[in-house]
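During the no-cost extension, the postdoctoral fellow (Dr. R.K.) reprocessed legacy sequence entries with the updated structure-token encoder. One reprocessed record is reproduced below for audit purposes.
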Amino acid sequence: MPLIAIIDDDEGMRLALQSLIRSVGLPARAFDSAADFLALANRSCVACLILDVNMPTMSGLALHRELVESGQALPTIFITANPNDATRGEAMRQGALCYLSKPFTEDMLLDWVNVALGRSGPAGVTPS
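Re-encoded structure tokens follow.
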């Protein structure tokens, strides 16, 4: 079963997202930093990233860029409490599935997770 990796420095958000993903029968693992995710020995089991844009030490954009450059690009849903057009543009240029501004609905996030897992086409959702 595909693993959904959640990377967010906000513990409350991280745990809420992990609970939401698990509530629909998908395995989820939460990480509090990009470094913790990079320490995961076997990232091949990860099918989708839910990735906070603004984190200390290494941002979500920097982590995503590192994964892409190393040939380990994963379907990525960026989330942020501080949206701006420049960051959104960079995320999309890096190949992100979407860029969601907090607060977003559970249904919106789950729709994008389903897109990442190939369970529905992008016609069912619109980039945010």
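The chain has five helices and five strands. The CA atoms of residues 33 and 122 lie 29 Å apart. The remaining legacy entries will be reprocessed before the final report is submitted.
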